[in-house]
Design brief:
Blueprint: H1 3-13, H2 17-29, E1 33-37, H3 43-55, E2 60-67, E3 72-79
Antiparallel strand pairs: 1-3, 2-3
Helix pairs in contact: 1-2
Length: 83
C-alpha cells in the first residue's frame, strides 16, 4: 500500500487530515504509534475505519479514547506482528 493512497482512503472515510496522515504512516510502515489531538472522530468515522481495516486485511489494532474534560482524542495504534 502506498502512503498517499491510504491517506486518501482515510480522509475519504471522514478522518481529519492530521489523524489520517499519522494513521496512514502507521499502516504503511506497519508500526505502532500514538497521538493526542482535538479533531472530532464520530461513530460513523470509527465504523468506516473498522470496515476499511477489515476489508484491506490491515494488521493493526486501534483504540480511540475521548477525554471529555479536555475535549481531546487519544489514538493508540498497535501493529500486529505476523507469526
Amino acid at each position: 500500500m502506498e502512503l498517499r493512497e491510504v491517506y486518501r482512503d482515510l480522509t475519504g472515510i471522514g478522518l481529519g487530515e492530521h489523524d489520517a496522515a499519522l494513521l496512514a504512516d502507521c499502516i504503511v510502515k506497519n508500526k505502532s504509534c500514538s497521538w493526542i489531538n482535538n479533531d472530532k472522530v464520530s461513530k460513523e468515522n470509527v465504523r468506516g475505519l473498522i470496515n476499511y481495516l477489515k476489508n484491506n486485511n490491515i494488521p493493526i489494532n486501534i483504540a480511540i479514547k475521548y477525554i471529555e474534560t479536555r475535549e481531546k482524542f487519544i489514538w493508540e495504534v498497535k501493529a500486529i506482528e505476523s507469526k
